Amino acid sequence: MAVMAVSAFQVLCVKLCRSLKFYQSNLYSTLVPSDEITVNYKHGLPLITLTLPSRKERCQFVVKPMLSTVGSFLQDLQNEDKGIRTAAVFTADGTEIAASTLMEILLMSDFKLVIDKITYDVQCPKKEKVSSEQATEMENMKSLVYRLFTALHLEEFQKKREHHLLEKIDHLKGQLQPLEQMKARIEARSEAKISGLLWAGLAMLSVQGGAMAWLTWWVYSWDIMEPVTYFITFANSMVFFAYFIVTRQDYTYSAVKSRQFLHFFHKRSKQQHFDVVQYNKLKDDLAKATEALRHVRRSLYLRMQVEELDEKK
């Protein structure tokens, strides 16, 4: 009986120890809480694992550090869970991080992810320090990847830019169309005034010449009219010199006509509320967009020629 009691006690102790070990293993489990955000590296790429608020499911996001930005990561997060209304990233001290920041820079230190006013503290694994030679090789590799990416996507980028420039040119032309019509009316009115002024000047000179001839041959003699014509010529010279002092331009008929035309044009523009500054700005923007479009199309044409030559070879 004593032997049977001892063996039963040993079996009970073994079962009790096993249950205690099982309880301790559950108590000190290393499972990640369901609402925690973790950052791990797999095949050299960061994996951000988090729980989607609406679906209550764990989801992994693969990050391309050299290409992905904070804005693209937040956009991917909202695309995956349509129930997310707002999402933002802050530093550990509460400073908001710009959407254009590369994920490579973000993952260098801990940060906070705020989803619908709920803050999650994210701890990034520390990277091992690399030597200067390894750092140089890494920078060269990054530069090479960037150049390859640019070369592979250059044509797509240029086509998008061409489409953007075409839309911009159409928009500028739409804004310029009513201004061009108003400008044409003002120019026509100013040109008519200039033409009338020129004909008035011709008529005044004709009357002056006729009056001088009448006074010389019918009223007085040349001996009397000679000093008069001299003073009239001297007065005209004084007028021309005064014009040069005021305008700093030589007195020529084309210069006088252009100056008077601009005077009539700006006066008429103020009356009809034609914004000359806005018109000039739109014209400059249109010229720049047209020049940029010409360069883009030239690059695309040269690229097509190179591809055709490669195909012929």
From TrEMBL:
Keyword Cytoplasm: no
Keyword GTP-binding: no
Key words, A-Z: Calcium, Calcium channel, Calcium transport, Ion channel, Ion transport, Membrane, Mitochondrion, Mitochondrion inner membrane, Transmembrane, Transmembrane helix, Transport
Transmembrane spans: 197-220, 227-246
Origin: domain of life: Eukaryota
Subcellular location as annotated: Membrane; Mitochondrion inner membrane
Primary location class: membrane
Domain Calcium uniporter protein C-terminal, first and last residues per copy: 80-282
Membrane protein topology class: Multi-pass membrane protein
Record's function text: Mitochondrial inner membrane calcium uniporter that mediates calcium uptake into mitochondria. Mitochondrial calcium homeostasis plays key roles in cellular physiology and regulates cell bioenergetics, cytoplasmic calcium signals and activation of cell death pathways.
Domain note: The selectivity filter, in which calcium ions are arranged in single file, is composed of two acidic rings separated by one helical turn along the central axis of the channel pore.
PANTHER family the UniProt entry points to: CALCIUM UNIPORTER PROTEIN, MITOCHONDRIAL, CALCIUM UNIPORTER REGULATORY SUBUNIT MCUB, MITOCHONDRIAL
Family, as annotated: Belongs to the MCU (TC 1.A.77) family.
Protein name (record): Calcium uniporter protein
Species of the source: Odocoileus virginianus
Higher taxonomy: Eukaryota, Metazoa, Chordata, Craniata, Vertebrata
